[in-house]
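Usage

Read records sequentially. Each one opens with the input sequence:
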Amino acid sequence: MRILHTSDWHLGRSFHRVGMLEHQAAFVDHLLEVVSSERVDLVVVAGDVYDRALPHVDAVRLADETLARLASSPARVVITSGNHDSAQRLGFGSRLIDAAGIHLRTDASSVGTPIVLTDEHGPVAVHGIPYLDPQALHEPWRLSARTHEAALGEAMRRIRADLEARPVRSVVLAHAFVAGGLPSDSERDISVGGISVVSSAIFDGISYTALGHLHGRATLDETLRYSGSPLAYSFSEAGHTKGSWLVELGPDGGTGTTFVEAPVPRPLSTITGKLDDLLADSRYDDAQDHWIQATLTDVVRPDRPMERLRMRFPHTLVLSFAPAGEPAPSVVAEAPRGRSDHQVTKDFVAAMRGAPADEDESALLMQACDACAEDPDADLLVSATGSG
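and closes with the structure output:
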């Protein structure tokens, strides 16, 4: 049986305010091409189909189109909900959709009931575990603790009980932070009481476990893998290779795997240095069409840095400042006695930038102070009298 393992689509998500729906649609096109060219029998999506519980209508439209295209393909599909999804919304109509070969598993009560598929070597039991909230399941499942380890442990107990009754090859989908995976900046924290990581041993004995939640691909062992997200959603993923796992499930349950790379809409680069150096250095020629995260090390903050950066790197999205050899500036939070509001704002600019405001900036700061004051003349009075 040929299985395509993907997860963490996050349909509707933006990347630093850049809409990603067009690129997500391109990934769907790629996915369908792989299903066709590689004669995939089963597509598994291990959670986080959407980026939020109440997704934008355009994201729902893309999901609907994707499911319709998958239903028209020869492959069967099993999808579970992740921590970003609304289990109720994603799972709406699941009993009707089952008839089309698209199996949505979003309800914890379904854990332990598999979708049974058959190939030339016999049956394969596919168990989908939706994202499990330990707090919500503590009472109904009588968990020993309010932890992800306890919730997933009970889910696997139910699955193993089913597999004991039918000794067949098995596939499990789970959305969790499993020990050995590497997190990035774009995942939402799922810790409960400070505990979010679960042991990989929970999945021992399963022919193949398709993991979701972490956005970097990872092989925890030959039968336990993260596919990662199909697109980068933070600059911490600049070094990731995105895509899906193509898994060959053999007659004895053994697996062979190949990573199928997804199309890259635009590479990511992080650059650091003084502004003039970044604008002139030939080492960054290849990054000119990349999405850019820039850190400027100028001791004095340059004028119009984003505008100037975008003249060479038009897709600069993130700009931060770390003056070379200088500690981060701090502003003492005490009553500014004897200083006008205008002077306080000018002192703040000087402390943060390393250079005083010029005449035009000073005038603009004065206008801002006046606009915020009930009595625009009060600022002048404080300055003249020295009283607060």
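Summary fields computed downstream for this record:
- The two ends are 77 Å apart (CA to CA).
- Residues 381-388 have pLDDT under 50 and may be disordered.
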